[in-house]
Design brief:
With about 800 residues, the protein is of the alpha+beta class. It is globular, with a radius of gyration of 34 Å. Helix 10 runs parallel beside helix 21 and helix 15 runs antiparallel to helix 21. The chain has 25 helices and 24 strands.
Length: about 800
């Protein structure tokens, strides 16, 4: 019987090839879109679950309750001795792993070719705790020796052209010379759902033997390393709370007295500073605790993206339902005959559900193929490297099968119930009138355009905010500035030589040095100290004499650094407006103020105040900032202001100057404006994803309108013929047939406007500096939606209005 239903379904669908194509293609696009977003969501929520012991692995973080009225803060960067101390003092801990993340600034030499890379240092038991598989080498001993190194499959192919590289030599410059390392293992490429990422993996014991690493050994006041712990099986993290508190008080014995002295704690209640454990499985979706090599994602964002994909799929399902209802007029006599010859209501329902399931299965197959083809482009939009792997994401298989069946049942159930309720006598007497004009169908079409218009308006507002952030004057010149990265070089020695080499180049306007650049990924430095009874946090930047002038930063009071004044390299600082206000000063009295408590042997003196500059992304408020020239810092970033226009000549001069001062190590540079724009890559991804979803939804909604307009024209053939005989014009008939559809679009615009305004207003609250939502976005989107709908409907209505009225009146 089931085979009989499917045979009849296939025969009926093949009779109406155009409408069948609209249904199948529309559903396949909707399913493909939802599949990609579902894959993205599963990937985000499955982070780190591939580790065999993931339920017993935790990341240690420091929790600081709000003091001085400040918001509570957390930190995942700890001192070197924390891990061993926890293992020694807490029997609940089976193992610990310390991670010193690579920053992609290390120099790596293979066969006399030097590249940049990031060396991540971990404890030798790394592979015993985490399940990163090796395709070559022994995981148990891969990091047993201090000069061992593990590289990923991708890096092995890049450096050697093969993966069988165990025993080969890689030279790495960690300090002043290149040290040889022996490749002891090749790790398979890091899964897309891992919050721990690396390309080169060295032994933490080697790092602590370096000049820089030795500073942290047994030093509880020098933090910068992540610590993970593996608990004994069956141990609950709640059982570790008291002992974690004991770790803090044991190794920071003066902290309690200091907090009481400063009025931060009265000795009652919970101690305001404590170590805590964060489950490994929650690291990626916990935005309250930062840090790590992979940026965490807000779970709310994932659900919003899934809701957008569900909206697109809903539009595709609505197309199916409305077109099935619209076809009911042509199927009415068929149903009447079926009932007269003995078909039951159940059999009619099964017949139409079988058609819906057949369409859904065909759409599912096509949608899966389409999603695989679109996956590389989706990865570019989402910033992930996801693959269709049922081994990695086993839940995808049953979710996709369930989704296809659910879509078929939901999309086909209402038409099946409507058609099965036809009474055979009324049908055969042509008294049944069902079509695309009933209230339910009109409601569905309106919902389609509410979703579509809402997504388009959202995209416009996101793009406006993105354009505002990129285009707003940051308070300094960001164009035509090249930032040369000198990390890993003898920078204090080569900077004057580099600057001198460029001094006579006509394409170079100026050169300045700084410890840090400006923009995403350039790092930041912040100091905190108690000043007049209140804790202050200040972003600090080491710069040279030319820095402020090169960037065009406006000085509101005082002066710039002067190379002829010796104290400028010892105690002088220049602060921004926000810092001036935060410390309670004014432009009239700020110059000459001292920053008491900054350091034990150093009391900086303010010599100038600059206008605020946006050195951080604009979803953050401008924070207190100061510039200095303290002698224990170094210029790791060289800022080169070049002539506007084609940068090729200037870049060639920079390359030549670099090779003259550093002939061995390769040049690495970025344009400052591009680096600043990378602050907003998340918003850029959002606009791209929502924009594509909006475009697809409009396309699907118009496909549905096209099919409904075709059905309406067929069902009103005689009416159109009669009107033409009575003298109606083509434009009048087009207006008549288009009016109902355009009314639905206008109603959808009215509904979508306040809903979209509310949600986008909430979204904009995450930005410290934001646009005001104007009416133009709504007006432009509304006009566009009406225009697209009119063009779509007119294609069919003009065709129907232009038909020969004699043929129309003869149509049965």
């Amino acid at each position: 019987m089931l085979r009989h239903y499917f045979n009849i379904a296939f025969r009926n669908l093949s009779k109406q090839k155009g409408l069948t194509f609209i249904n199948v293609f529309g559903l396949s696009v909707g399913l493909a879109c939802f599949t990609l977003f579902l894959l993205f969501a599963i990937n985000e929520f499955s982070f780190d679950r591939f580790h065999k012991d993931s339920r017993n692995i935790y990341r240690v973080y420091l929790n600081l309750d709000g003091m001085h009225g400040e918001e509570p803060r957390t930190s995942t960067y700890h001192p070197v001795p924390l891990g061993p101390a926890m293992k020694q003092d807490m029997p609940e801990i089976k193992n610990y792993i310390r991670i010193k993340e690579g920053n992609n600034d290390d120099f790596i030499r293979v066969n006399n070719k030097v590249i940049r890379g990031g060396i991540t240092f971990v404890d030798p038991s790394f592979f015993a705790v985490f399940s990163f598989p090796l395709i070559a080498g022994d995981a148990s001993s891969a990091l047993a020796k201090t000069n061992n190194i593990v590289i990923t499959k991708q890096k092995a192919l890049q450096l050697f052209g093969e993966t069988n590289v165990v025993g080969k030599i890689i030279e790495i410059k960690l300090e002043s010379i290149f040290d040889p390392f022996i490749v002891s293992g090749v790790a398979d490429d890091i899964p897309a759902n891992s919050s721990i990422s690396f390309t080169f993996l060295g032994s933490f014991d080697h790092f602590t033997s370096t000049k820089y690493g030795k500073r942290g050994v047994d030093n509880w006041h020098r933090s910068g390393y992540q610590t993970y712990v593996q608990l004994q099986p069956g141990t609950s993290p709640a059982n570790c709370t008291a002992k974690l508190a004991g770790i803090r008080t044991k190794y920071y014995q003066d902290e309690t007295a200091e907090l009481k002295k400063n009025g931060d704690w009265d000795g009652k209640g919970q101690f305001p500073i404590s170590y805590r454990l964060e489950p490994l499985r929650e690291v990626h979706t916990n935005i309250k605790i930062g840090g790590g090599s992979v940026e965490p994602v807000n779970p709310k964002t994932i659900w919003i993206l899934l809701a957008i994909a569900a909206g697109v799929l809903l539009i595709a399902c609505i197309n199916f339902t409305t077109l099935a209802i619209g076809r009911s007029a042509s199927r009415a006599k068929e149903i009447g005959v079926r009932k007269v010859v003995g078909s039951s209501k159940k059999q009619v329902i099964l017949q139409f559900l079988s058609e819906a399931l057949l369409l859904s299965i065909l759409s599912g197959i096509l949608g899966f193929i389409l999603s695989k083809l679109l996956l590389p482009y989706f990865n570019q939009l989402s910033g992930r490297e996801i693959s269709f792997s049922f081994a990695q994401y086993p839940e995808m298989a049953w979710m996709l099968v369930g989704l296809i069946l659910l879509v078929g049942l939901l999309a086909g159930s209402y038409p099946a119930l409507i058609l099965s309720n036809f009474k055979p006598v009324e049908v055969l007497k042509s008294k049944v009138r069902v079509g695309g004009a009933n209230l339910f169908t009109r409601s569905l079409v309106t919902i389609q355009f509410v979703v579509s218009i809402g997504l388009i308006i959202s995209t416009v507002i996101i793009l406006q905010q993105l354009s505002y952030m990129k285009g707003k004057n940051p308070g300094f010149t960001k164009e035509n500035i090249v930032m040369v990265d000198a990390e890993g070089t003898a920078t204090k020695k080569i900077f004057p030589l580099f600057k001198q080499a460029l001094s006579k180049e006509p394409s170079i306007h100026a050169v300045a040095g700084a410890e840090l650049g400006i923009g995403a990924g350039t790092g930041w430095s912040r100091s905190g100290w108690d000043f007049e009874g209140k804790h202050r946090d200040v972003y600090e930047y080491f710069v040279d004499n030319n820095y402020i002038n090169l960037l065009g930063v406006q000085i509101l009071a005082g002066r710039n650094f002067d190379p002829l004044i010796a104290s400028d390299t010892l105690t002088s600082v220049i602060i921004n407006e926000t810092m001036m206000n935060d410390f309670g000063w004014t432009l009239q009295n700020a110059v000459g103020q001292t920053l008491k408590g900054y350091a034990e042997n150093l009391t900086p003196v303010v010599i100038g105040v600059t206008k605020n500059i946006y050195f951080r992304p604009m979803n953050e408020k401008v924070e207190p900032q100061m510039f200095h020239q303290f002698h224990d810092y170094a210029p790791y970033k060289y800022l080169v202001k070049i002539k506007a226009g084609n940068p090729a000549t200037a870049l060639a001069a920079i390359e030549k100057a670099w090779k003259s001062v550093e002939p061995v190590l390769p040049l690495k540079y970025d344009f400052m404006d591009e680096q600043i724009n990378r602050f907003y890559k998340g918003e850029q991804r959002w606009s791209n994803i929502v924009g594509w979803a909006g475009g697809i939804s409009i396309f699907l909604a118009c496909m549905g309108l096209f099919g409904l307009a075709a059905l309406a024209s067929i069902n009103r053939t005689k009416e159109i013929g009669t009107r033409k005989v009575l003298g109606a014009s083509v434009s009048g008939i087009v207006k008549l047939l288009s009016k109902d559809f355009l009314q639905m679009v206008i109603i959808a615009l009215i509904i979508a406007t306040p809903i979209t305004w509310y949600f986008m207003h909430q979204w904009l609250q995450d930005f410290a500096y934001r646009i005001n939502i104007g009416w133009m976005a709504f007006a432009a989107t509304g006009i566009l939606a009406v225009l697209i709908a009119f063009i779509t409907v007119s294609f069919q209505t003009i065709k129907a209005a232009g038909a020969n009225p004699v043929k129309s009146l003869r149509t049965e």
